[in-house]
Amino acid sequence: MAINKQIHLVSRPQGEPGTDNFKLVEAELPALRDGQVLVRHHFLSLDPYMRGRMNDAKSYAAPQPLNEVMIGGTVGEVVESRNPGFQAGDKVVGMGGWQQFAVVDANQPGLLRKVDTTHIPASAYLGAVGMPGVTGWYGLTKICEPRAGETVVVSAASGAVGGVVGQLAKARGCRAVGIAGGPDKCRYVVEELGFDACLDYKLHKDTKSLATALKDACPNGIDGYFENVGGMILDAVMLRMNAFGRMAFCGMISGYNGEPIPMQYPQLILQSRLKLQGFIVSEHMNVWPEALKELGTMVATGKLKYRETVAHGIESAPEAFLGLLKGRNFGKQLVKLI
Ligand SMILES: NC(=O)c1ccc[n+]([C@@H]2O[C@H](COP(=O)([O-])OP(=O)(O)OC[C@H]3O[C@@H](n4cnc5c(N)ncnc54)[C@H](OP(=O)(O)O)[C@@H]3O)[C@@H](O)[C@H]2O)c1
Q1: How many CB atoms neighbour CB 288 within 10 A?
Q2: Burial class (CB in 10 A: 0-12, 13-18, 19+), 27
Q3: Residues 213-232: pLDDT tens digits?
């Protein structure tokens, strides 16, 4: 019987997680029942939301159960099928989790989606043409509602979501300004992704300093802000928001380990008549087809660029995930499993 290597969550972190919160488990693959397919995963996606699932706390989603396979998006290939809708060789995207193989009840709607890898690489379905891409598309188009000539700022700009936001804003005729950690990421955001400017927040020790740099990078102020980080970056951006600006609250990664991230200037929401809206991309499945169509076309035609950081082997997933929470990834963090 074939062995399936998996990573389980075995304890909940207090503050920063460690590799000891995870355990490598070797499980036997069961025989397929009617309706099921066996998927061999080629790539596993590592995403910041997984940190939230490790907590046993009130949130928009249930906690990851202990001693079970960690949740995660996957792309792979059907290797065996007892479902008439799928055959061996089909490339599929699903939520297969941190493991080499998954047995999927393919009759359940939405669990497994066939994808075409002729013009789009399989891994992109976990990034620019997948959940992170749709996240960027939704927050930008539905909440920031950018108009040509306006200025859009995005934090974690070199990442899977942030990179998409700036490029879509440019395609809509906006000035796109990124905020990212370190000179290499900032250079990439401008030179490769085509943003107009990118600020290295690590060069600024306080809100005032970052807000001054933003004033130079955004001479007409900020109309749309796509928030991925929180804390000092959010405060600095708020000081530069134009009246009636729109702020999409997508993520607040600087507080994911429980760090307090108070907002320094809430009065600006009133004074600048700002719109702030949080969103969870999986609650907007109705826009996914429209978003994926635009993102897929842009990737296939080379108009939407992205970068990947790839760890190798399921054993490397915990370490790679911890790196993602510290900004050691450069672009979409993946684990290659074949
Ligand atoms: N609302 C939704 O439905 C939804 C869906 C997907 C993702 N998200 C959120 O979107 C954000 C980006 O996700 P992603 O998948 O594209 O990840 P990512 O940007 O590819 O990777 C995370 C990046 O966050 C930055 N970071 C980490 N810790 C930080 C800190 N303490 N302060 C400042 N920056 C920090 C790092 O970049 P630097 O080196 O530049 O600091 C790191 O590379 C996350 O907040 C995530 O939770 C939300």
Answers
A1: 19
A2: middle
A3: 999 999 999 999 999 999 99
Distance between CA atoms of 143 and 34, rounded to whole angstroms? 43
Residue 1 pLDDT greater than 70, yes or no: no
Whether ligand 1 lies within 6 angstroms of the CB of 185 is answered as yes
Quote the pLDDT of residue 116. 97
Mutate to test the pocket of ligand 1, among 168, 228, 324 (most ligand atoms within 8 A of CB): 228
Q: How far apart are CA 152 and CA 224, in angstroms?
A: 5
Q: For ligand 1, atom 45, which residue shows the shortest CA distance?
A: 251
Residue 207 has pLDDT above 70, yes or no: yes
CA 48 – ligand 1 centroid, Å:
6
- CATH no. for residue 186? 3.40.50.720
Whether residue 229 has its Cβ less than 6 Å from ligand 1: yes
Q: Is the distance from the beta carbon of residue 281 to the nearest atom of ligand 1 less than 6 Å?
A: yes
How far apart are the CA of 52 and the centre of ligand 1, in A? 13
Pair 169, 247 in one domain: yes
* Tally of domains within the chain: 2
Full domain range(s) for residue 328: 3-127+307-336
> Within this chain, do residues 231 and 311 fall inside the same structural domain, yes or no?
no
Q: Is 36 in the pocket of ligand 1 (CB under 6 A)?
A: no
Compute the distance between CA of residue 96 and CA of residue 51 in angstroms, rounded to an integer: 17
Residue 80 pLDDT greater than 90, yes or no = yes
Same domain? 62 vs 197 = no
- Is the pLDDT score of 99 beyond 70? yes
Ligand 1 atom with the smallest distance to the CA of 333 is: 20
140 falls within a domain: yes
Mean pLDDT of 202-207: 97
64 DSSP 8-state letter: P
Does residue 254 have its Cβ closer than 6 Å to ligand 1? Answer: yes
Res. 322 pLDDT band, cuts 50 70 90 = very high
Q: Return the ligand 1 atom nearest residue 47 CA.
A: 15
Around 27, how many Cα atoms within 13 Å sit in the side-chain half-sphere? 18
Residue 251 beta carbon below 6 angstroms from any ligand 1 atom: yes
